[in-house]
């Protein structure tokens, strides 16, 4: 097996638990290997650090699979999948859809597995994990007996690994649309073409928090996608809900989800750019008791962060202007580069410019089936702040 030897001093971050070795941290590779092969990782003094798969074409040269001296074989991947499943047995309650494997945070780097009832949707996001696709698919069938497995490896990060974007069935037959149950709220999900693997499973616990605030409220849900927050708010007793999204196809599914839950008469969905809609609603003198903001990631790189900050500040400022004193703002960011501290600073700056005072009710994160590694800040991406506005 080939060995990657790190430059002097570059072992500290990975020794602390970070799962990646960057290309600029590798001093030499001893032995022959093909891109995607498993290699040993050693520090500059030759001490063993672990084992992972390598791709010299990627900025992330090596992704750790283990820090032990153990074989990377069928038994290894079976143990890791069983460990991931055991964790979900503890933390996932009252839902038929959840994340079964969360990549690095489940010690299976670049592998995503989401369960939607009887079906699994998977993503292989790196060359190294792509090499194990057949093995992992076989193990998923063996361990979880799904009716079908569908691949959604249509994420841009694969291109940085030298991989094509691919989708399609890996096992059995997988319908395009399935129905899931989330604490009694039902959603119709597009597994073949929906965002992420079909639904924003990472917001599940935050949807429940919104439902708890919604009784009797007039609710605005911006960037509503297929109505996750909107329908949850209506199910929580909202008097009226307006959902806004730029995708007509997503809104068609949102209307279906409202009808599926018997709340269609209290839910209205409007196709528009949410920034424009917020301006128009304010100009019209509209007011809402609860506003939810769940925008897409405004930045996927550190270089684009200043523009993203401006976008987050604007959307939060405009939302605050629609709230009466005592109203609630639920605002989210799924941009990893917008850290928690910076996220709070942006919301505070928006409140200052809007001449509003905020009371922090709760700071939430991604659902527990999307765990984070303490020494890998990249695994913490979703921030959800609940504020009362005065």
TrEMBL record:
Domain (PUA) ranges: 2-86
Record SUPFAM superfamilies: PUA domain-like, S-adenosyl-L-methionine-dependent methyltransferases
Sorted UniProt keywords: Cytoplasm, Methyltransferase, RNA-binding, rRNA processing, S-adenosyl-L-methionine, Transferase
Cell location: Cytoplasm
GO cellular component, one term: cytoplasm
GO MF assignments: methyltransferase activity; RNA binding
Keyword RNA-binding set for record: yes
One Pfam family matching this protein: Methyltrans_SAM
Entry annotated with the keyword DNA-binding: no
GO term, biological process aspect, one: methylation
Chief localization: cytoplasm
Similarity remark: Belongs to the methyltransferase superfamily. RlmI family.
Record protein name field: SAM-dependent methyltransferase
Native organism: Thermodesulfitimonas autotrophica
Lineage, top ranks: Bacteria, Bacillati, Bacillota, Clostridia, Thermoanaerobacterales
């Amino acid at each position: 097996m080939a060995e990657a030897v790190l430059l002097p001093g570059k072992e500290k971050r990975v020794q602390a638990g970070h799962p990646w070795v960057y290309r600029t941290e590798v001093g030499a590779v001893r032995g022959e290997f093909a891109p995607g092969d498993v290699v040993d990782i050693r520090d500059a003094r030759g001490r063993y650090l672990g084992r992972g798969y390598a791709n010299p074409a990627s900025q992330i040269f090596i992704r750790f699979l283990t820090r032990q001296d153990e074989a990377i074989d069928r038994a290894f991947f079976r143990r890791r999948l069983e460990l991931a499943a055991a964790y979900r047995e503890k933390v996932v309650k009252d839902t038929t859809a959840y994340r079964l494997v969360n990549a690095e945070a489940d010690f299976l780097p670049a592998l995503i597995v989401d369960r939607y009832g009887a079906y699994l949707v998977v993503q292989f996001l790196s060359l190294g994990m792509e090499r194990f696709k057949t093995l992992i698919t076989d193990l998923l069938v063996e361990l979880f007996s799904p009716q079908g497995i569908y691949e959604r490896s249509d994420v841009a990060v694969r291109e940085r690994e030298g991989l094509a974007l691919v989708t399609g069935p890996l096992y059995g037959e997988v319908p395009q649309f399935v129905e899931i149950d989330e604490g009694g709220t039902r959603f119709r999900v597009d597994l073949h073409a929906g965002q992420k693997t079909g639904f924003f499973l990472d917001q599940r616990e935050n949807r429940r928090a919104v439902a708890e605030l919604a009784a009797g409220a007039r609710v605005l849900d911006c960037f509503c996608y297929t109505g996750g927050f909107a329908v949850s708010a209506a199910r929580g007793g909202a008097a009226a809900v307006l959902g806004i999204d730029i995708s007509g196809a997503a809104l068609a599914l949102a209307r279906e989800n409202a009808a599926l839950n018997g709340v269609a008469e209290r839910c209205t969905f409007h196709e528009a750019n949410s920034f424009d809609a917020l301006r128009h609603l304010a100009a019209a003198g509209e007011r809402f008791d609860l506003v939810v903001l769940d925008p897409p990631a405004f930045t996927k790189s550190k270089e684009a962060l200043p523009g993203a900050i401006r976008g987050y500040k604007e959307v939060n400022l405009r939302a605050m202007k629609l709230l009466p004193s005592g109203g609630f703002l639920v605002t989210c960011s799924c941009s990893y580069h917008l850290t928690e501290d910076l996220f709070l600073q942006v919301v505070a700056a928006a409140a200052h410019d809007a001449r509003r005072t905020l009371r922090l009710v709760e700071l939430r994160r991604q659902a527990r089936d999307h765990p984070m590694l303490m020494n890998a800040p990249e695994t913490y991406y979703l921030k959800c702040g609940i504020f009362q506005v005065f």
